[in-house]
Automatic annotation (TrEMBL):
<dbReference type="GO" id="GO:0016020">
    <property type="term" value="C:membrane"/>
</dbReference>
<keyword id="KW-0444">Lipid biosynthesis</keyword>
<comment type="function">
    <text>Condensation of UDP-2,3-diacylglucosamine and 2,3-diacylglucosamine-1-phosphate to form lipid A disaccharide, a precursor of lipid A, a phosphorylated glycolipid that anchors the lipopolysaccharide to the outer membrane of the cell.</text>
</comment>
<keyword id="KW-0808">Transferase</keyword>
<dbReference type="GO" id="GO:0008915">
    <property type="term" value="F:lipid-A-disaccharide synthase activity"/>
</dbReference>
<dbReference type="InterPro" id="IPR003835">
    <property type="entry name" value="Glyco_trans_19"/>
</dbReference>
<keyword id="KW-0441">Lipid A biosynthesis</keyword>
<dbReference type="Pfam" id="PF02684">
    <property type="entry name" value="LpxB"/>
</dbReference>
<keyword id="KW-0328">Glycosyltransferase</keyword>
<dbReference type="GO" id="GO:0005543">
    <property type="term" value="F:phospholipid binding"/>
</dbReference>
<dbReference type="GO" id="GO:0009245">
    <property type="term" value="P:lipid A biosynthetic process"/>
</dbReference>
<keyword id="KW-0443">Lipid metabolism</keyword>
<protein>
    <recommendedName>
        <fullName>Lipid-A-disaccharide synthase</fullName>
        <ecNumber>2.4.1.182</ecNumber>
    </recommendedName>
</protein>
């Protein structure tokens, strides 16, 4: 029996780890999975001994608030390796934590595969050298990621981005318009204020203020608000009631809300990549503690925040960051797009290029095969 210890510390990592391990279990039913993760890993049958998703934070310095708990989790994971003796450790995202766990794997003589490894291609390439020194096998999801880790001396497999497998809308656009009772020639904006309360607190009020102004200027305009998993509807309703704008809150239908929208207004993060795969134009917002923004923008010298812009290599979707994130700026860009289909068409074409750079699909299956190979149950090639 193959024993795999998983380490996924955030909502997105939990989702991606669960998708791979579910595929792996279909290939190898006699499989023991245990470790750290969230609800999706638990739902697919993993034995979750630590769930840190409740203390996941936005930003670098904010994470220090929960530093004691993070180190306690790290100690417990190291002890689990010694006690349960896994054949393989599957590290998914959660970079600062999983880099330390990768080092422990090296010291304890246990193989490790890192899916969504530290973004050394974006900043701080020394992290790639560290992961190479730890002997961690890298499952690269971006082509530039593969290059940076190979240059650092790591063993790398380019598996492609799993969102190409996961982001799908089964219904045709016409069916969805009927489902959501959209009228003829009605334009649609979908709001995605984030999956954490910290993001929602900083972004949603101004998103709704902009929506109220746009509704006044455009009579045939429908506004949807996406409710992220784990976010209470009553919490979102408190913002909507205060704004007094007519908004329909929808749960568990993010991709449908992207598909029917002329464009979305979204928090920076995974949602931007999901929308890019569906070729949905987007206006990206980001507002964090100034300490975190300073670190990202000036110390690490990140030119863009939105993943579509990073992958494309230049700005194709607007980014309203920090002081630029204002209601008036949201309204100006959104109104211009509502009045100019040509601009939206141009963005859609550029997002197609982003999609192509992510690979041809099949990442989940390739990563599952990689785990089997590293676990000694499948020959390479």
């Amino acid at each position: 029996m193959l024993k795999i210890m998983v380490s996924a510390g955030e909502i997105s990592g939990d989702m991606h780890a669960a998708a791979v391990l579910k595929k792996l279990r279909a290939k190898e039913p006699e499989l023991e999975i245990f470790g750290m993760g969230g609800p999706q890993l638990k739902a697919m049958g993993a034995e979750i001994l630590i769930d840190p998703t409740a203390i996941s934070t936005i930003g670098y310095l904010e994470a220090f608030k929960n530093l004691k708990e993070h180190f306690a989790h790290l100690k417990k994971m190291k002890n689990l390796i010694k006690l349960r003796k896994p054949d393989l450790v599957f590290l998914v995202d959660y970079s600062a934590f999983n880099m330390r766990l990768a080092k422990a794997c090296r010291e304890l003589g246990v193989k490790a595969v890192n899916y969504f490894p530290p973004s050394a291609w974006l900043y701080n390439r020394r992290r790639a050298k560290k992961m190479a020194a730890y002997g961690t096998k890298i499952a690269a999801v971006f082509p530039m990621e593969k290059e940076v880790y190979q240059e650092a001396g790591a063993e790398v497999s380019f598996v492609g981005h799993p969102l190409l497998d996961l982001v799908k809308v089964e219904s045709e656009t016409a069916e969805l318009k009927a489902k959501y009772q959209l009228k003829e020639k009605e334009q649609v904006i979908s709001l995605f204020p984030g999956s954490r309360k910290g993001e929602i607190d900083s972004l949603l009020t101004k998103m709704l203020e902009a929506a109220a102004i746009l509704k006044q200027k455009k009579s045939k305009l429908k506004i949807f608000l996406a409710a992220a998993a784990g976010i209470e509807i009553d919490y979102l309703l408190s913002f909507v009631r205060q704004s007094q704008v007519e908004v329909e809150i929808v749960e568990s239908a993010n991709y449908e809300l992207m598909q029917i929208a002329d464009f979305i207004i979204t928090a920076s993060g995974t949602t931007t990549l999901e929308a890019a795969i569906l070729q949905t134009p987007q206006l990206v917002c980001y507002q964090a503690a100034w300490s975190s923004y300073f670190l990202a923008k000036y110390i690490f010298k990140i030119e863009f925040v939105a993943l579509p812009n990073i992958i494309y290599g230049s700005q194709i979707v607007p980014e309203l960051l920090q002081n630029d994130f204002e209601t008036a700026e949201l309204v100006e860009i959104a109104l211009d797009w509502l009045n100019n289909q040509h601009k939206l068409n141009k963005i859609e074409a550029e997002l197609q290029t982003v999609r192509e750079k992510l690979g041809g699909g099949g990442a989940v299956n390739r990563t599952a095969d990689l785990l089997l190979q590293e676990g000694g149950l499948k020959n390479s090639g």
